[in-house]
Design goal:
With about 260 residues, the protein is mainly α. Helix content is about 65%, strand content about 5%. The chain contains 7 helices and 6 strands, in the order H-E-E-H-H-E-E-E-E-H-H-H-H. A two-stranded antiparallel ribbon has the order 1-2. Strands 3-6 form a two-stranded antiparallel sheet. A hairpin with a 5-residue loop joins strand 4 and strand 5.
């Protein structure tokens, strides 16, 4: 509850506060999503027993952000943010396609890092095999373009699943049990996301015999385990953020902005 010893802020100040918090959460959401698609499969890292594409590392932040926006500002703004993110995915894919479609500059005018010598043929995730040399952009394009398409499908399915389940649990519990809607929505949506993105990204490579079923299983299990652990770990930050922000913004999560 607001402190009785402190006068409430004027409506203009309160509105600026709310828009600032929304912009910060939306910025973190869109930044994490863009990092997923730009970094994509350019590197795999070992995080304990988990094998992860580096682009996956910031992705759990997107679910925390949509949960906070849904809790504080309602499901409509959370859904709007998901659609804006999808539009940015489309823009990113269009820029990648355009960069690949346009002719490169004359070899004599290229910077030295644009062309890389290959010691042996390299098979890219999109099925292209490069021999002898490759453009740096071609490597990035081959590692990210297919992943962006996969993430667009997984993104829409998982994010809308998260928003729907979050508010389903919120309505069912009448605004109580933050931990239930935070974890219940994210655990399911992260599973949807992991299955979709791994199967779409690597399904073709598995069908061509380039990776085995065991490798596919390791990627899927690692992907989901990391996201599941991140979802459970953000429960306390979620509680703290809701408590602090709802007071500072003078928002009642059970009433205002329910939709």
């Amino acid at each position: 509850m607001p402190s009785p010893h402190r006068p409430p802020p004027d409506p203009g100040t309160l509105e600026r506060r709310r828009e600032l918090v929304f912009l910060v959460l939306a910025g973190v959401f869109l930044g994490a999503m863009a990092m997923l698609n730009i970094l994509g499969l350019t590197r795999f890292v070992q995080l304990g027993p988990l094998t992860l594409a580096v682009g996956v590392l910031p992705y759990p932040l997107t679910f925390l952000c949509t949960d906070l926006i849904g809790e504080l500002f309602g499901r409509r703004r959370a859904r709007d943010l998901v659609w804006i993110g999808f539009g940015i995915n489309v823009m990113l894919l269009a820029v990648l396609w355009l960069g690949q479609a346009l002719p490169p500059v004359d070899p004599a005018a290229r910077p030295p890092w644009q062309d890389l010598a290959l010691a042996e043929p390299v098979a890219l995730p999109d099925g292209t095999i490069l021999e002898h040399h490759a453009e740096l952009f071609r490597l990035i394009y081959g590692c990210t373009s297919g992943a962006v398409l996969a993430s667009m499908v997984a993104y829409l399915a998982a994010q809308f699943c998260d928003v729907y389940l979050f508010h389903f649990w919120k309505d069912l519990t009448r605004g109580r049990h933050l931990w239930l809607r935070n974890n219940g929505s994210t655990v399911v949506s992260q599973l949807v996301d992991s299955v979709a993105v791994v199967s779409i990204t690597f399904g073709a490579a598995w069908g061509r015999g380039e990776i085995g079923l065991e490798t596919l299983g390791v990627l899927l299990a690692s992907n989901y385990a990391y996201k599941l652990l991140a979802a459970l770990a953000d429960t306390l930050p979620f509680y703290v953020a809701v408590a602090v922000l709802s007071r500072w913004l003078r928002i009642d999560p059970r009433g205002e902005y329910r939709e």
